[in-house]
Fold this protein.
Amino acid sequence: MVPVSHMLAFAAVVSVLIAIPGPSVLFTISRALTVGRRAALLTVVGNELGLCVQVVAVAFGVGAVLEESARILVAVKLAGAVYLVCLGVQAIRHRRSMAEALAAQLQPVTPLRAIRDGFVVGVANPKSIVFFVVGLPEFTSSAPGHLPVQAQLLILGFMFPVIALVLDSVWATVAGTVRQWLVRSPRRLALIGGAGGLVMIGLGLSVAVTGRKD
């Protein structure tokens, strides 16, 4: 099995890492402000599913390929960056229509799309990619009596999305609650939509720059 001390240390490090706002947290907050709490929570679910893909990829050796090939890693990051920018532009373009949708009690983003958007951001999250490739193996043990390293990577790795699901849901709930207080005015809602779009565009550009540096 995985040493309990390793699991506790990993959980502590992961909790701090997730609590620090990164691409996933900022995207979740933006979604909560632009499309509401429910869609933001579904986005969180999709994001954690994306993280699960990263965990499996690292456990089965894809992480080593990404580490060796800077071009592949940059391509993955840039794909996520472009997607974020597109979502931000769309949020800005439709910032006024969101007020009409809210007044008509319509859901601007379908549950499937919210999960899909979160998945794309999660699977291309550069912060977690780097952590899984570089940091995750440090918490495994090859001593006799423990599970194979690959199994330990899977167990420890899946702790990340579980913890992230809880913490990111808190961000989504708080941001969604604030949104409900602000959207009493259509003008405020339009401003929120524009601001959320700008955050997503800025986040996408930030991810792109990080990709180039790596």
About this structure: The longest helix spans residues 149-182. DSSP finds ten helices and no strands in the chain.
